[in-house]
Amino acid sequence: MRAASLALLLAATALATGCARTQGAGYYWQSVTGHVDLMWRARPVDDWLADEGTPAALRQRLELARRLRAFAVSELGLPDNASYHRYADLERNAAVYNVVAAPPLSLTLQTWCFPVAGCVGYRGYYREDDARAFAAGLGEGLEVGVYPVPAYSTLGWMNWAGGDPLLNTFIRYPEGELARLLFHELAHQVLYAKDDTSFNESFATAVERIGVQRWFAQASTPAARAEYEAFDQRRRAFRALTASVRARLQAVYGDATLDDAAKLVRKAQVMADFRREYETLKAFWGGFAAYDPWVARANNALLGAQGAYDQLVPGFEALFEREGRDFARFYDAVRTLAALPREERHQRLQALTITR
Q1: 295 CB contacts (<8 Å, ≥6 apart)?
Q2: What is the DSSP letter of 188?
Q3: Rounded to an integer, what distance in angstroms lies between the CA atom of residue 291 and that of residue 294?
Q4: Using an 8 Å Cβ cutoff, are 149 and 201 in contact?
Q5: How confident is the model over 247-302, as pLDDT tens digits?
Q6: Which of 72, 282, 315, 333 has its CA at 20 to 30 Å from residue 132's CA atom?
């Protein structure tokens, strides 16, 4: 790569990944060098498929990803660009590690502000030890969480340099889960509302759900669909449980008749009930334990972060129905919402949910 091209890549990455000078030189540097390493490792999918040394299992997943990518364009109206036509092995289990934080008596996430991305409720690191070091330094006044992220979107800013690649961190997901991830991340390239994590993530989650349903209706096998539906039923049940927990906590935190000490006691009761209810749910699943680590670490920060992905999804799904299940019309309607002030766009989505 020529020096001029590398300089442009560094500058664009600083914008695309939300790196700001105000966040400190160390954070800026790890963000830029981490993304440059990711891009440097990526090779075209066609090259991997032509390479006789590519393992058969990886070859099969790359071929599936290529079909999913084409489907995203032809059937979901998602961007036809450079993203997800290359593959990289990062030699680790996550693309980045996110840090989230919230007060002891609130589910509102602390935010960090960056150019282009605006203010978001998380802070990403390419090395887990860096994420945990930052989390440890946030102080005792906050509840914090650190979690692995298999993929992230550069919002289309890096398509000139090859786009967002497929990664080893998710390429071996079951078919439905791989489809969900690709459709979700491509949806972020359709539009991005600055300073509104819940709007952006709920929109992408709605697109992934609708997209996967269409994929299984048109382009997949009954076995893959059955595998996905079993996993999705567990996911929906778990999210319903955590939504209930968030509602109970919000009621406690907003109760003006309680002082902080009493709220902390009530909070502990809610969290104990949550863990008992989860054990009941897990028993119903026959011991499926994939959510165990998350439940063990659950706090305001992790619950708040999860809520950003679910909060407005019903409104977006209702909007899709209102627009005749036509993706082009749906995206135009979402762009219209994104142009409104944050509170107004949320209110309109919530009204759609109520009248659905």
Answers
A1: 274, 275, 278
A2: T
A3: 5
A4: no
A5: 999 999 999 999 999 999 999 999 999 999 999 999 999 999 999 999 999 999 99
A6: 282
